[in-house]
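Supplementary material to the annual report.
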Amino acid sequence: MIIAMKPGVSREEIKKFAAELEKQGVKIDFSHGASQTVLGLVGDTSAINDEALRVNRLVEKVIRVQEPYKKANRLFHPADTVLDLPTTGKRAMIGGGAFGVIAGPCSVESREQIVLVASAVKKAGAAFLRGGAFKPRTSPYSFQGMGCAGLDLLVEAKKETGLPIVTELMEISQLELFEDVDVIQVGARNMQNFNLLKELGHSRKPVLLKRGLASTMTELLMAAEYVMAGGNDRIVLCERGIRSFDSFTRNTLDLAIIPALKKKTHLPVIVDPSHATGIAAMVPAMSKAAIAAGADGIIVEVHNDPEHALCDGEQSLTPDSFSELMNTLRKYAAIEGKTI
Amino acid sequence: MIIAMKPGVSREEIKKFAAELEKQGVKIDFSHGASQTVLGLVGDTSAINDEALRVNRLVEKVIRVQEPYKKANRLFHPADTVLDLPTTGKRAMIGGGAFGVIAGPCSVESREQIVLVASAVKKAGAAFLRGGAFKPRTSPYSFQGMGCAGLDLLVEAKKETGLPIVTELMEISQLELFEDVDVIQVGARNMQNFNLLKELGHSRKPVLLKRGLASTMTELLMAAEYVMAGGNDRIVLCERGIRSFDSFTRNTLDLAIIPALKKKTHLPVIVDPSHATGIAAMVPAMSKAAIAAGADGIIVEVHNDPEHALCDGEQSLTPDSFSELMNTLRKYAAIEGKTI
Amino acid sequence: MIIAMKPGVSREEIKKFAAELEKQGVKIDFSHGASQTVLGLVGDTSAINDEALRVNRLVEKVIRVQEPYKKANRLFHPADTVLDLPTTGKRAMIGGGAFGVIAGPCSVESREQIVLVASAVKKAGAAFLRGGAFKPRTSPYSFQGMGCAGLDLLVEAKKETGLPIVTELMEISQLELFEDVDVIQVGARNMQNFNLLKELGHSRKPVLLKRGLASTMTELLMAAEYVMAGGNDRIVLCERGIRSFDSFTRNTLDLAIIPALKKKTHLPVIVDPSHATGIAAMVPAMSKAAIAAGADGIIVEVHNDPEHALCDGEQSLTPDSFSELMNTLRKYAAIEGKTI
Amino acid sequence: MIIAMKPGVSREEIKKFAAELEKQGVKIDFSHGASQTVLGLVGDTSAINDEALRVNRLVEKVIRVQEPYKKANRLFHPADTVLDLPTTGKRAMIGGGAFGVIAGPCSVESREQIVLVASAVKKAGAAFLRGGAFKPRTSPYSFQGMGCAGLDLLVEAKKETGLPIVTELMEISQLELFEDVDVIQVGARNMQNFNLLKELGHSRKPVLLKRGLASTMTELLMAAEYVMAGGNDRIVLCERGIRSFDSFTRNTLDLAIIPALKKKTHLPVIVDPSHATGIAAMVPAMSKAAIAAGADGIIVEVHNDPEHALCDGEQSLTPDSFSELMNTLRKYAAIEGKTI
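Predicted assembly:
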């Protein structure tokens, strides 16, 4: 930790200030410049209260050299974390050389619909089935999902196809309903719902953690750290577009976070091109770009009849266009030495 | 609702498309341009599924002319909503000509601290006491608030001073603990926690709803609509800074939302200059700007000893500087014809 | 063009208002809703002054259905525009199935440097040489480029290698110095330097137009329209990262603009992964993502000795890493049916 | 300057690296932590090439403790800079206790219009006349200003009223036409037109420098530094709204930059509420907020007939509403101890 003192603070004052800090168990190195002095704190600085320092009248700037996350930090865990679920059929993996594809409708609408889509995406090569039962909607007057009935239908689709299911949890009290769910999705709007994250830390279920609309990379990793601090380290990070000043797409897909995350963390990273763009015609281009940028997978919306979807039809691929995309992605995966 | 058809769609196709729509109970007016046709839908369009329309292969653009919120809309409720709590002493009001000041520490830290600060802010003219018991923190390793014990201390401070208390609720299950709380705060990160909003719709407590870091004005009003749809219309909106590209302040305080909200909604609007800037020295300037811009109040952090605060000391005023600010704000209020 | 009248405006007033508009040569269709009336203007609306309409006391909203650009609009020019420069060696193309690679150092530093880098990038397969002579720098105290001497060295490198040269013009008066330059680059900060754009409209040189840091897609196309309105339609658009709230990369590369631009315009689109990320290690991932997303080329910084570069060494590839990247890009191009 | 070495770099390597740096005339203090070493550079670090350091394979982070601007820095020039123009009538001042109001139409449209508006704003208390002769417009098909004829009319209005004139320069070659202009405005889109800034550094005219749409506070100060580096220190900074994700106003007015700039620089700071909001009805609220936040003045658009303005009528006050605003601002100025 580095502390730049304000210009004009006397050596005497700095000495006293440093003595106080050293009582907290750190060693201090001094660098006296012409207009100001800089302190380098060595040792365990995790107990030092940055905020108190920043408000100190002698201090100009406090800079932490180390990242604030530990369990998610690749520095301390160099090996890649891989999600690898036991299945009866094809291995359901994300990371470790596997490009995991999660596909399915925005919301579960009926037994016919979810089984039909599940079978189609399985045939095309998806390793996981997605589908929303509880839906976060901007308007209280929009369709809010089928709820528990939707969860039941997802489980039926899983039985029919063998695909593990990924679905979104909206609040802690729903957790008991998620027993048969394979991967719990935390949506972008809940990325900093800290109580929910803590609770998931005590769960044994893998968590798909979506980046918030205006969350920095560090905040995403701190959200993962919340879950990991509770003991659950089976986390998949998901870039799904951030909010920027332009609106030709629903959000701005920030693909550079993939190589950036790969450097900072050992957790697998996937991309959601459907929510990022909001436009079905752009999903193939952005899916290819995701694998090219180094992603470990994608989560894609597929609907048998997008024109009549109850939710997000604009961004849904048809089973045919999804199948075509998968064929192209296999060629990309081959170049990158990955399997789909 | 207006629908622009794609260039080149035939009159025949448009006729069929319109006939389908008319089955949903709307009347359609046609405007045939040289390169494309525009449809104006008249009648109750609330049942029309925009999303399905947008994905229709014949449609280029769908534009809703009316705002998507009804209960929060000033068009249908021209008179200002005012928060006016019964108290033993000074009236605790926000709106209706009252500039309501909510003040107190970021977190409750001890009985002494909260009572001391409560008394000081009351003396200076605050109408409400704020204080966090449950704290949303970016890091799992930071102080998370005193929890229930903090709530109890707030209630004690209320007993001592008569000030109604405002504190943040982080999840639905905490609601039963909030019986003695006067105003429930929904934090920026929970502005789109829709289940929480629905639950608060069934509560009879006033809600202080903070704008999310990257939420549009319309989304803020839709969040209020969620609560109001449940029957609770005692809502105070709060601008607390949005995320922009610059970082000289913690967030970017968007004061123009005050006159904009005043036009769109009847709900009162306050400003949080402490979280918006994150810098105590800027709080007075931004508080004055808030009243000048038309706000109905402010929520300000005050701490008896900012250098030793467990949280957000950087942005806390001392009781003395708060008192000085209140004196200036009274002069501003006089110009604006408001009372503090 | 669509005009939504304010709620409560009388039929009488609307009639008068519409009569005024019709004097400007348009035909008006009316759609009378319960709370407001919507007007559809048919005919040539280009002369109608939107701004005056918006300020009219009877008007709530004015919506233009058609895009404000004509010459850049794919609707009126369906066929792709391709940049194809005559060269003595390999064809220098961008678009039309060619993935054009522009490579070279941030700034020209010496004869040895530019010739060495030019030869290396040519050998690796680049079709154009880039290099800055006039450099826009944030600080007046930073290296500002070699100026005219730099241009001369670029021309020498062109003679040695046959590669057409791409370099940045910073102001109109420099135009006469650019006679031997093949493609004139307009930097992100000059994207809305309208006088410069107008001047380039009268030039016969191709223009590489970089998207501004905070420019919308429509503004980028309007900037192109400025050049095209003057008669010069040889324009290449370039996405180079926008400013967002996060800072793990220098800017946020917005790759979804590629399919979006491809739909809206016939102009070729390339990507600058070097400036977008500012980090050499991320350039390969983002270059691959660019071709996967449908780009017609990239512009990449290559320096023989990044540690001693006078400018932007952080984001420069070495000739070896560039050559390796080109080998991978050829595989991607093969999948996409493009040539490098 | 502080350099954090990468974790794992050996003491030996650090020693060599530091020895190289010391050759550039700095002294180095070492702080050896458990996982990495931090270097503190003391002495004149202005010649050190940050960029080369950042790309060095041993270096993790480079942090400059001091601001990169010198002449604009309040640390080295504590006293406020004040703009104070000689006039025949009322003093035309910005800063130093004077709240300077610049008012006038977006564009000069005719002799009658400019003289009428000039007289009206003078009567209401404005100290400067604004008016555009050369207009930067997003579309090549919009009105581009009257050009030289507009300048002549401004000079006539100045003769009639005695008000000094403020108008925008769009390119260097126009400078010779600006002899009778009192304050040269650099628009937001030209804030980083570095050649223009350098040229203005050699001018003796005061410069009104508008913050770019996506420029940080530091970049604004660096732009001022460009002008000051050339010897011209009569600069007025202007906040005019930044681009954010929301669109209920044209831009997002960032008023917190006023106290932030006041701390960092000695230059006066004004606000443009007209361009920031784009909505006339919001201009009074934002003007009052500007003075409350500590601004030294405002620049406001006033038009005799906004409904027929050739440009930006939506955001123009009428002379009457401007006069009313001035009356309120005088009350605010009295509280703040300023004169209008």
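Residues 319-336 of chain B form the longest helix (18 residues).
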